[in-house]
Amino acid sequence: MPYKTPQMDTSSSQGRLPLGIGLMLLASAVGIMAGFGSWIIKVSIGHMASLFLSWMRDDGGINWYIGALPFAGIFLAVAYQRFVVHASLEHGSDQVRRDLQERRFYMRRGLCYQPFIASILTLGFGGSAGAEGPCATVGAALGSNLSRKLGMAPEIVRVMMGCGAGAGIAGIFKAPVAGMMFTLEVMKVRIGTMSVMALTLASLCGALTCYALTGFSFDIRFMPSAFFDWRTSGWVIALGVFCGLYSVYYNRVAAMLGKFFNRIGNVWLRAAAGSAMAGIALLLFPCMYGEGYGTITALVNGNDAGILAGSLWTGHDGDVWLLVSLASAIMLLKVFATIASNSSGGVAGDFAPTVFAGAFAGFVFARCVSALFGVELPVGLFCLYGAAGAFAGIIHAPLMAIFLAAEIVGNGYGFILPLAMVSLTSYLVMKLLTPASRYAGADHDDLAALLGTPPIPMYNDKDNNKRPGSR
């Protein structure tokens, strides 16, 4: 029997708003709160990063203090989780996805703010990751707790969790469509037409709230110096293949490092190992500090001067092959710094790091093509294309990659065709070599659905919706 999405009762009762209107109002409230939270974490991390990076020497010497900052951030985050929260906040978006899969819709109230504090400690002190994971977790918790407080049915609570998670992503990236795609494509939340409308509204509110509070500006300021030339289509597809192969490397190294950290039973020893790994990466390449939006801004605008700023190779930007070699090293080391930051006790996300790594992949590809074949490609545009390609392959989310790359720079919709070309190519290469997504189990993955695996049943009102052992 074919799977059918259950329909919510939209009839109104005397003295109450129609459910459709109530759902939209609730989604708007969740979106605004998630957007406000995204602004709080963005401003806090930005101020801390500006303070610490202002001390950095740029004469080619070693910035020893930068290597020590991840120790402070990760150990403080571990202490906060162990002695204050008394629970792990790592990989929160993965836990939200599992809760949705297993029909656990009631998230504890502390998750409405605790991931923010842990993430500010992790990223403000130099953790090489992103803030989107905690934003998605907090958004989902806001949706769960607000709808539960209002006495909503469990099915509405489930929808609001998805709306909150999407609004959190939309807020931190200021990308409403990307936030929607996160809920639908990455979290794979199955919802009906009215719920999609609520998700759209929540994502718009989240993105616009954070956008307005940050002065109507985007994190990556993109000033394109050229338009897409159809004659470069072959090279765009080739970049997609390159990004797909890089995605295989990224995910396999991430899985290996995840197992490595999981084998370390002592939380403090695990934090020390991760801090050392992240600290060494920052010592070599300070541009990997935090989310790295400043470096991405420079790359997509064709400015490679910031790649080596504060490193041992400051001032050697004129040597093309040295620059390409160092950019390749950054691209390969980024996964080590990211997993060390968010799998050793730190609390962060891994969407922004894939955008960062993809921009470097596009830079390396364009510079190598120019040097080897004499073809002058627009380096800045290929950095933007590479960001979308790496995201599509690593996250297994080509649609989200297309819209995220277009929205995060504010004016990227003019390049939607090449973004789609590189994203879909990278995704197909990644799927060919690694079918299962790292963000979903085999019975929840899109490939499994194509092969005929039955979907996970939705929440049934007859269930009691309680965690095992709860009362």
Overview of this protein structure:
By secondary structure, the protein is mainly alpha-helical. The chain contains 17 helices and no strands. It has two domains: 195 residues, Clc chloride channel, CATH 1.10.3080; 221 residues, Clc chloride channel (Orthogonal Bundle), CATH 1.10.3080.10. It is 64% helix and 0% strand. The two termini are 34 Å apart. The relative contact order is 0.14.
Briefly, what CATH class of the largest domain? Mainly Alpha
State the order of secondary-structure elements, H for helix, E for strand: HHHHHHHHHHHHHHHHH
Question: Tally the helices: what do you get?
Answer: 17
Outline the biggest β-sheet: none
Spans of at least 5 consecutive residues whose pLDDT stays below 50 are: 1-15, 440-471
Number of strands: 0
Q: Shape from CA axes?
A: globular
Give the CATH architecture of the largest domain.
Orthogonal Bundle
Structural class: mainly alpha
Helix content: 55-70%
The name of the CATH superfamily of the largest domain reads: Clc chloride channel
Q: State the separation between the terminal residues, measured CA to CA.
A: 34 Å
